[in-house]
Amino acid sequence: MKGKKATLNNLSLASAQGFLRGEEGAIKEVYLAYRQLLYFIIASIVSNPEDAKDIYQETFVSALAHREDVKSPKDLKWYLVSTAKNLALNYVKKRDALIDPSDLLDYYGQEESNGYLEELNAFLKPKESVVVTLKIAYGFTNKEIGRYLNVSERSVAALYREALIKLKKGISAHV
Amino acid sequence: MFNKKKYQKELQAKLEASTPKIEAYEALPATPKNRVVHPWLKPVMFGLGGAAVVALSVSGGLAIAKALQSSGSGQNALTGRLNERKAKVALSDISATSSAIYTRFADLTATSLLKANYQEASLAYSPVDAFIAFSMEIYASNDTVQASYCTALGAKNMGEINTAAKEIACFLGASENRQYRYNDEILTGDYGAANINSLWLDPKTPLVSDPSELLKGFSDNYYADVYKAEINSDNLNAWLSEVAPSGFNDLPKLEIPSGGNAAMVSSTFLKDHFAPEKEQRYQNQYQSGNHRYSYALPNGNTRLVDYLDYYDETSGYVFNGDGYHVTSLPVGLLGISYYLPDEGNDIASLFDRVFLTSGLQGSHYKLSLEAPYFSITSDLDLLSALPNLGASSLRNSSLEKLVDSSKEPTALVSAKQSSVLKLDYEGFYAASATVLVNAGAAENNYPVYDFKVDRPHFFKVTRDGLPLYYGVVVDPSYPAYQG
Prior knowledge:
The complex is a heterodimer. Chain A is mainly alpha-helical. Chain A has 9 helices and 2 strands. Chain A folds into 2 domains: 93 residues, RNA polymerase sigma factor, region 2, helix turn helix motif (Rna Polymerase Sigma Factor, Chain: A); 62 residues, Orthogonal Bundle (Arc Repressor Mutant, subunit A). Chain B is α+β, with helices and mostly antiparallel strands. Chain B folds into 2 domains: 284 residues, Antithrombin, Chain I, domain 2; 130 residues, Alpha-1-antitrypsin, domain 1, CATH 2.30.39.10.
């Protein structure tokens, strides 16, 4: 008989529960487990690194302050992702009233000057970078990415296929 | 050639390099991770039907009349309930609300009960069976006491309390011989935990006209069996022997007043062990007597007791309390937190300060912990907890939803918890029962911290942060090896 510890990707359910109870050790574990993902989400929306860093800190502070809103530890990851996304989008809306990032996927197409995404994936468009990073680095499913971007799973799959072709070509060209 | 794994590593390295660190969170203490990981509880069926009592299980919509007139062990019904528990044995299934309710109960009762019962002797308290027994009692009592109990525990209604009790009972589950994997070996041992509950009704007790819905609630929420038998110490001790899982042979002796018309009984069994090589080393030390050191008793004398030595090179943590220090010893999946008063501080003066560890400042050390073996037999009177729980009125009137008060007004006359706790080379062992009787009426440069628990101290046993036992060790009392 082999035991398997329940996890939420790289975070144990017990740690998620500890975070909801405000335990210091668990707060640190949640921070370590999700810091990369949350900063990626924010920095991919907010192009200014200093502003992105402020929003990144605000995300953890806000999530801790409102942790009673999380109904189940299993919802913690999505709660953090949504908080990061909403804080970043609110910032963008305030910064530039002309931008309407209600469709996040289209927004990535418009913001071609986002240096953060360009650095991550030199061969990809920003929107492809987001899909590839969420899928390959953070293990998101197409369904989860679709939920995050407010688009269909089919659109996500198409973008991912396209991105993989570019990556294969791009990497081969540089070898 | 595009290699996805290689690309994934490169991408993750870029992400890590670009992610800023938030110093406030980096500086937080980490949760120790040096536990032996093995499967937790494997629920199995217990035998029932002791000679001294007639066991009747009530499940589903079974009517009380049928239930109380039936005979037999009721094992099928019990199996069904234990199977239901099987699906919910992990802590992850305890909701945040249930966890908050239970933790609130523990906070409200632990310090005051230990303080009220302390008489310069070791004692222990299990909030698990106290919570379940009190919740059962109040579940069958009037709406007013239910409302004040809910307020005290921060619950919206009795449904949330019932859910919390169910989830805690499921968390402890029911287990017997179970296998677990350690490294590449499959080991078998009777380790685990169980929470087993019952409702006792004296044969002469007049019940309300239709208690079937309430009894279904006892079955569904508390996994409680119903016994129609005289409520006395002999019968309850016989029941405890019957339901104790194998491996739990050292049981508390229950002493309750006779003549009650209804009783809520909750028992908890908890056992876990050190890793095999540690257990062997501790056993050798115990049998050789080479780890017997002095322990300071409150009267100024000392006595030689056996100690466990535990060294943590990487994740040892010591917290600084007001007049005491705290550190933890992992025992399998359990954690024993030691609350050691600083030298010169009397343990009685610290009752109000300990166990409130949230917010304590701590530091990493290379921890050298010396913890004494102990053996505690404890009896607590729980009535003093009633005011904190908003349930004082139970002393005047109780169980209105179960007992026909027009024929026999009922009140809570006794609330006692008896327990046996041990820490030795085999690990941690605990068995306790609460009876509420109603009647008529990596490489680091941390400094080394020598944490020697060689004087009276407090302790708390937890699993994944949930408190399961509290205790005070005045005299460890564990017998030396006799050869």
